[in-house]
Amino acid sequence: MIHLIKNIRSVSPYKLELEFNTGETKTVDLEKKLNEWSKSPQSKFKELLNPDYFKKVKLDKELETIYWDNGIDLCPDVLYSLN
After folding, report:
1. What pTM did the predictor assign?
2. Cβ neighbours, 10 Å, residue 69
3. Which fold has domain 5-81?
4. pLDDT tens, 24-74?
């Protein structure tokens, strides 16, 4: 099944509570992944380690995924599989 994000229910530092097209709501903790993805000096993921910037996550209703204004978006299937 392809997972899509229908709603962002809540956001806290590095954690997102997401409602998926399956009807399930999952809390996804991205702290470990963000640290892993931020190892490169040029990585845009470093911006997401700033809690204030992380909280600016948005829902793309057309693509049914989440994104930030710096160009980062995350695959709903990957988010669903975390935790």
Report:
1. 0.90
2. 10
3. NE0471 N-terminal domain-like (3.30.2020)
4. 999 999 999 999 999 998 999 999 999 999 999 999 999 999 999 999 999
